[in-house]
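Input record, target 12 of the design panel.
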């Protein structure tokens, strides 16, 4: 009974040890993933269609699902590493039939004739590497750092996927608005061409004027066809991000006003500390520092504690008797005397890897500053162009109104009024282009600061 109790206690210890670790390793919760989505930031755009699509991206996007699965894979790798810190216990059974075909002599007087017998072996084997230098624990810490890197990769993927989707979405908004304007320009040009043909038939204009108007019409039609092609490509990009085969066409947002998102005029330098690539570079540096420690400790001797507890008998009925008890215990020191320089080479390799990671970390810092500054400058320039386009549109509207009044009063002609309308529509196209470019540059700025709400940065300055 005491033997059976001992076996049960050993098994309970092994199971409880691994179970205790499992509680400490939690997979990323859905709340954390929703936090990565940062729906509060996208709500600043006041676009319910965008918010609805963002939730579909969160639910269906394959890249995000792959990132989530990589987290789960990393958690299992950490568990595998931690398992090396625990005792290894195995249960094995062996049934052996021994057949002796000739007599065996032991000395001049002892003779063992031909015989056959059954040997039953039923042991529990246990081994444990006494981690006196903390090498196995350091390995586990290194693997945990790798898991931290994978978590930041997941966050980076959320920022990238959602940012790229929003940019594609607003490009679609821009193209839809430009197509409507372009269609009106084509219709106006057709009317101008019709009036030019009438003037040509009346002998009031030359054939070169007719050809020029036809060429302009063809140019406008070609531009319209290009816009339609671009809309198809952007729509396919959006469908890919949504990862939903049931969507046939992307809903036309029909925004009456393109949102204007405020952004800070300056960005504090410490904002790069929230960027995933910056944090990943830090974790990688720490991970390789731990690997260097492991490589150093690998040069020291190891101590393996081993033991066996079980039963060995020649008959099944006697297997669990007291006289069939089998047990052993010992400590085995292990030290590699000569490995051809393999361990020293591995240590130097890890040191070089650490130096490389340190240079990569410094490069990441500089690159982070550059990306933030580039995104901020782009947002400022596009915003200035937007203000200029608004002012030009006001002037063109005044010119179009004057030309319309002159036509209605008989002092101007219809072609002149139509040309004024064309100029106004051309400036309106520039305005829409500047609005969307400004919006996309703000989204790029959001991505460059690590998915941080720009409103919070503005408030903290």
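The sequence produced for target 12 reads:
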């Amino acid at each position: 009974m005491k033997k059976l109790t001992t076996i049960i206690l050993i098994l309970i210890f092994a199971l409880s040890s691994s179970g205790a670790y499992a509680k400490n390793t939690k997979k990323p919760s859905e709340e954390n993933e929703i936090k990565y989505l940062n729906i509060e930031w996208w709500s600043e755009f006041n676009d319910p269609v965008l918010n609805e699509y963002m939730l579909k991206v969160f639910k269906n996007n394959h890249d995000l699902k792959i990132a989530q699965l990589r987290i789960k894979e990393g958690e299992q790798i950490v568990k595998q590493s931690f398992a090396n810190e625990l005792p290894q216990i195995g249960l094995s059974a062996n049934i052996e039939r021994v057949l002796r075909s000739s007599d065996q002599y032991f000395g001049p007087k002892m003779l063992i004739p031909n015989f056959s017998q059954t040997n039953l072996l039923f042991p529990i084997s246990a081994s444990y590497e006494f981690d006196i230098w903390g090498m196995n624990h350091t390995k586990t810490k290194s693997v945990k750092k790798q898991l931290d890197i994978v978590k930041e990769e997941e966050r980076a993927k959320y920022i990238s996927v959602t940012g790229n989707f929003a940019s594609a979405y607003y490009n679609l908004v821009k193209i839809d608005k430009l197509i409507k304007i372009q269609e009106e320009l084509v219709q106006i040009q057709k009317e101008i061409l019709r009036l030019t043909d009438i003037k040509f038939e009346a002998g009031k204009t030359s054939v070169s004027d007719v050809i020029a108007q036809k060429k302009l019409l063809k140019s406008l039609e070609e531009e319209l066809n290009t816009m339609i092609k671009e809309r198809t490509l952007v729509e396919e990009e959006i469908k890919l991000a949504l990862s939903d085969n049931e969507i046939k066409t992307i809903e036309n947002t029909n925004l009456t006003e393109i949102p204007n998102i405020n952004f800070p005029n300056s960005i504090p330098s410490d904002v790069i500390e929230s960027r995933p690539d910056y944090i990943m570079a830090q974790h990688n540096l720490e991970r390789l520092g731990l690997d260097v420690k492991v490589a150093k400790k690998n040069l020291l001797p190891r101590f393996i504690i081993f033991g066996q507890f079980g039963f060995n008998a020649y008959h099944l009925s006697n297997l669990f008797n007291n006289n069939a008890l089998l047990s052993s215990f010992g400590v085995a020191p292990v030290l590699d005397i000569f490995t051809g320089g393999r361990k020293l080479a591995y240590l130097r390799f890890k040191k070089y890897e650490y130096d490389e990671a340190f240079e990569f970390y410094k490069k990441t810092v500089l690159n982070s500053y550059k990306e933030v500054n580039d995104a901020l400058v782009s947002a400022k320039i596009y915003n200035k162009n937007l203000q200029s386009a608004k002012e030009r549109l006001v002037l063109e509207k005044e010119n179009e109104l004057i030309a319309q009044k002159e036509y209605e009063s008989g002092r101007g002609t219809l072609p002149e009024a139509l040309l004024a309308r064309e100029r106004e529509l051309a400036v309106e196209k520039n305005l829409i282009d500047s609005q969307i470019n400004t919006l996309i540059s703000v989204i790029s700025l959001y991505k460059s600061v690590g998915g941080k709400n720009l409103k919070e940065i503005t408030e903290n300055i």
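The longest helix spans residues 342-409.
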